[in-house]
Sequence to fold (751 residues):
Amino acid sequence: MPSAIAIKMIEVQAFGGFEKPLSYLVPNHMISKIQIGCLVRIPLGKRKVIGIVSSLSPKEKPNENKLKNILSLVQEKPVLNAELIKLARWMSTYYASSIDNVLESMIPSAVRDGMEEKTKRFIKINKQAPYEQTCEKLKNSPQQKKLFIYLKNASSELALHDTINLLGVGISSANSLLKKQFAIEINKTIKRDAYKDEFSDTNNNVEQKICLTKEQAQATREISISIQKKKFQPHLLQGVTGSGKTEVYFQAMEEVLSHGGGVLFLVPEVALAPQTVSRVRNRFTIQNEEVVVWHSHLSAGERLDAWKAVTSGHSRIVVGARSAIFAPVQNLKLIIIDEEHEPAYKQEENPRYHGRDVAVYRAMLNQGVCLLGSATPSLETLHNVEIKKYTKSELTKRIDGRELPLVHLVDMRKEAQREKNIPILSQPLVEALRQRYYDREQSILFLNRRGFNTTMLCHDCGNVEQCKDCSISMTFHRTDGYLRCHICGYRKPAPSFCTSCRSFEILKKGHGTQRIEDITESLLPKRAVIQRIDADMMTKKNLFRQTLDEFRKGKIDILVGTQMIAKGLDFPNVTLVGVIDADLPLRMEDFRASERAFQLLTQVSGRAGRGDRAGEVYIQTYAPHASSIQFARQGDVSGFVEEEMEMRKEYAYPPFRHLVRHIFKGRSQDKTSYYAEQWAKTLEANPIEGLEVKGPAAAPLEKIKGYYRFHLFYLTNNVTRFLKQYQVRRKAFPLDHEIQDIIDVDAFQIS
Ligand code: ADP
Ligand code: ZN
Ligand code: ZN
Fold:
């Protein structure tokens, strides 16, 4: 009976650093339940670990007597289907990441941990604890005391995590209170539905019956052709901001759902696209679909529930950011990648995959359609259209024929001459802001940094305070007078004199959102309401949402923010956008700098004039002739792309070849650079055919968190072929154990 034998011995891919699957036996009572993709607990030496059943017919047949039994099933149903296992294998090969690492990132940790009980922790005060005395006992633990007093004043038990988040105290404080029996814990079973009210947009609750524009109808038809073929097809939807791309996505979704298919809808970052997310929810909840929102703020339990709703086939629509690409949607026939050009889709830790590219591959495995949407598509995607791998539809007009905003360039070099010092807000921009305020219209000011003054520059010797670990300038935060490193978090009190020459002339150069907020306040009438929104606020997600809400309701006149307000937000009453430092993205040491600058400027400009009034944009720049700025000003995507493609072609940069970054890092600078050099010599002595090697060089951020970094860049036509040859050489290369190396395929970040 070969089948019985086959099922008795299985291969398990264990998590936690095991490259190869291991063989195990299945005890009789479990045989009927074991399938490919099941999560099992196995003995490994003295430990118990978990892993995925990866094969029911091991290629090698080790001696049964030496094999151990698997211990248990962690989840009743398989956690991965055959399709996702295939996807994992491809990712592991293409991104040169170990298979267990890939699998681990595919399965939410709550699922891996076998979490089952749907209970939520509640906390209440222990009435036996005398109030005064307890407060006295807690006087050296302010956080515990704060929580204790809060519980004392509460009328009933409170949800533990919500409460500590609200108070800003740590979980350890709560646990200490419980341990000392000053508070009591209660576990309640509940149905978690975290995303219930989070993304329902009250202003937009009822989607009106929409009559598609000509262009929308055309795009919908073109996409529909691909959907009906039931074949793999990536499709680019290129549409200017405000052209109604979302409606086209919805049409495609409705068609796929009507054929019984499932849908994945990816946005670059859920918190930055609350309107898109709530539009999806509103639109499809009415149609009795349960829309799962998959985002990083979900608690483990919520994620488990979301995951179960999807695996069971109960939910056919998942909206989320990058990692939602692994959501086990059944019969997945459509994947939408909104703002496909966004770097946020690239994961900058292991496995270093690109969400968009994984989406395309997953659509292929499912014979489905992958719909990529953007106003400014990446050159990679446009190249794929060019070589006919992807099809494309275009939306060239804004809804209702609204005009694209009028863009003014403000030459800051001239402004600086006129004003004798460097103004942060130019005269024309200030005038325009005032006018909007008097006209009761709203404005957005956009810049790229945060903090009060970016750096502390000595006027006498030019010294800039730098982080001792990261070789980047530190940022001054006015709130506490500290300098901070934004890479490693190191902070120190800001000096009052130059640490290099002792001069007291420390100019605070550069500017952040806080500074812009202050300056704007000083230049506008007293009653104007100016509010800042930046990365610091993202950690307090309610504050972030609240601010956006107030802005939408017209309670704020001017919103000051970083690139996060450039994305998918739609405020009809905004008629003015000011870009304070258009040049920053151009100064990055990156061949994509121009593309990024173009995309950002276009995106930001798209925020102006989305209502029935025309918009205006002021771009302050020291490089008014840079092509990215000129083309963005004219809203000329194809003009920019044509010029940029030529440059890329000349250097054979992506999209004409793949770029792989190879980083060496270690605590010793000499040793790290030595090994990077040695490796380069190895490649020289034994070259890989068709490969161009650049480097080694010190990374722009040479030192991060105490590690020195040197890198090489490889340009290749074929990643898989390159990696095969690379790995042979790499295995034979004796790298010191104090040095680590990292491969980043299709690298985005090169700092
Ligand atoms: P994009 O994503 O291309 O920037 P949106 O999808 O956000 O554009 O659409 C812009 C606005 O136009 C939204 O408020 C949307 O509800 C509205 N809209 C889209 N299509 C139509 C249509 N056919 N008729 C009327 N309004 C529409
Ligand atoms: Zn100095
Ligand atoms: Zn640092």
In short: The chain has six domains: 7-112, 119-189, 214-398, 406-451+512-648, 453-510, 658-745. Residues 144 and 173 are 5 Å apart (CA to CA). Residues 1-6, 201-205 have pLDDT under 50 and may be disordered. Residues 119-189 form one domain.
